[in-house]
């Protein structure tokens, strides 16, 4: 195999071994990360300022519970958290 191809393949392999970046949010001195359970987020951050729960649809024979939590505004920033079946899947911040 030519040297140039080995270098490119080696670089791709090294890049693929890097950890995937997860979104995080600071709550006081604690940090929460995508993948955490809602009970852990509540323990670290307290009750959200707003909470919307959408239960699974009975018409489709299953589904997941979707929760949207909002913290803020704090210092002009809103933090939006989305949970699927109690697992944090998205952290979004808006000013």
Low-pLDDT stretches: none
**Hey, roughly how much beta strand do the residues contain?**
35-45%
Series of H and E elements: HEEHEEEE
Major sheet summary line: 4 strands, antiparallel
Overall average residue pLDDT? 84
Can you describe what's shown?
It holds the Pfam family DUF2845. This is DUF2845 domain-containing protein. With 95 residues, the chain is an alpha+beta fold. The protein has a single domain, classed as Beta-lactamase Inhibitory Protein, Chain:B, domain 1. The chain contains two helices and six strands, in the order H-E-E-H-E-E-E-E. The chain has helices at 3-16, 38-45; strands at residues 24-27, 30-33, 50-54, 66-74, 77-84, 87-94. The strands form two sheets. Strands 3-4-5-6 form a four-stranded antiparallel sheet, with no helix packed on it. A two-stranded antiparallel ribbon has the order 1-2. A hairpin with a 2-residue loop joins strand 4 (66-74) and strand 5. The radius of gyration is 19 Å and the shape is globular. The termini are far apart. 12% of the residues are buried.
């Amino acid at each position: 195999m030519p040297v140039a191809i080995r270098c490119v393949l080696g670089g791709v392999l090294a890049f693929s071994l890097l950890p995937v970046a997860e979104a995080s949010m600071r709550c006081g001195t604690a940090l929460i990360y995508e993948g955490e359970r809602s009970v852990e987020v509540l323990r670290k951050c307290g009750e959200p300022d707003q909470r919307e729960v959408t239960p699974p649809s009975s018409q489709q024979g299953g589904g997941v519970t979707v929760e949207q939590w909002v913290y803020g505004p704090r210092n002009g920033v809103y933090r939006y958290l989305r949970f699927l079946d109690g697992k944090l899947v998205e952290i979004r911040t808006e000013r």
